[in-house]
Design a protein that fits this description.
The structure holds 2 protein chains of 2 kinds. Chain A has 3 helices and no strands. Chain A is mainly α. Chain A has 2 domains: about 45 residues; about 35 residues. The N and C termini of chain A lie far apart (about 40 Å). Chain B is mostly helical. Chain B has one domain. Chain B is about 75% helix and about 0% strand. Chain B has 10 helices and no strands. Chain B is globular and about 50 Å long. Chain B starts with a helix and ends with a helix. The chains are: A mainly alpha, B mainly alpha. At the A-B interface, helix 1, helix 2 and helix 3 of A face helix 1, helix 2, helix 4, helix 5 and helix 6 of B.
Chain lengths: ~80, ~200
């Protein structure tokens, strides 16, 4: 986790702070497309049937709805207090 | 670009379904491509630190927005587990992605939770899509609502809809919200994953 998440984040952040210039856009897109391919592969090899795929999508939709609801409700309450 | 994204993901799903390729190589590829993406995201955020510093000078209270947004998402995400075939902790981990689908899905897969990774990937794609679709309605509720809904995406892919439906004044708040949440997602997700 340290090698794949925190170290690259810290190194990238330090480079960005030092040179104060954004990375070339193609770097982002190449890494994103590569990652999506591998995530897709993992998803495809995990989801072996359409019924499992339906279950995954149903769960995903419900969690997404709740996550949005939670963020929106709590943030509105706090925002109305701090923006007065 | 949307076709490239769909094509890349779809091609991966197809090869995965057909079980073509070496799974060890795919696992390694997943780890290194995740590292590369996070490196690039970190670089971009480091280069924008001055913008964030300027925003924070206007009002440090703005930091509360991403903090409570994340807390609300994780808490309500945990509640969703009661309606699904997931434990509250699993659904909380999925919700902790805050719309950053490329991170959460791959992160959970690399940690040995491929099926939960698939749910996380789809849930965070849905979060981004729902934010774009619901932004006009959410903005009527309160201009901050689309920002909160966008989560990590409020600094890039949903920033446009926030500016259109919540007003241009909400643009900087949206950017700051996405910036802080993007920094929060890796530690929060990894912390929650430890208890899975």
């Amino acid at each position: 986790m340290i090698v794949s998440v925190f170290l690259p984040l810290a190194i990238g952040f330090a480079i960005g702070m030092a040179i104060r210039r954004k990375p070339k856009a193609y770097l982002f897109w190449v890494s994103l497309l590569l990652l999506l391919f591998f995530v897709g592969y993992q998803t495809g090899s995990t989801v072996s049937s359409l019924s499992i795929l339906y279950g995954v999508l149903r769960s995903a939709l419900v969690v997404a709805f709740f996550a949005i609801l939670g963020s929106v409700v709590v943030t509105i309450l706090v925002w109305r207090r701090i923006s007065r | 670009m949307i076709f490239l994204i769909l094509g890349s993901t779809g091609f991966g799903i197809l090869l995965g379904l057909l079980k073509v390729g070496n799974t060890t190589a795919v696992s390694q590829g997943l780890v290194w491509s995740l590292a590369l993406l996070i490196f690039v995201v970190g670089w971009e955020m480091g280069s924008e630190l001055n913008v964030v510093k300027r925003l924070l000078k206007k009002g440090p209270k703005l930091l509360l927005v991403p903090l409570v947004g994340t807390l609300g998402s994780v808490t309500f995400g945990a509640l969703s587990g009661f309606f699904l075939n997931l434990t509250p902790l699993q659904s909380a981990v999925v919700a902790s992605g805050m719309g950053w689908y490329s991170f959460t899905g791959s992160f959970l897969s690399t940690q040995g939770w491929p099926q939960l990774g698939a749910v996380a990937f789809a849930a965070n794609v849905f979060r981004e899509l729902l934010t774009i679709l619901l932004a006009p309605l959410l903005a009527r509720l309160d201009p901050i609502a689309p920002v909160a809904s966008g989560g990590a995406t409020s600094m890039d892919s949903t920033l446009g809809v926030v500016r259109v439906f919540s007003g241009k004044d909400m643009g900087p708040v949206s950017f700051l919200n996405g910036f802080v949440i993007t920094l929060l997602v890796p530690p929060v997700s990894s912390l929650l994953t430890r208890f899975l």
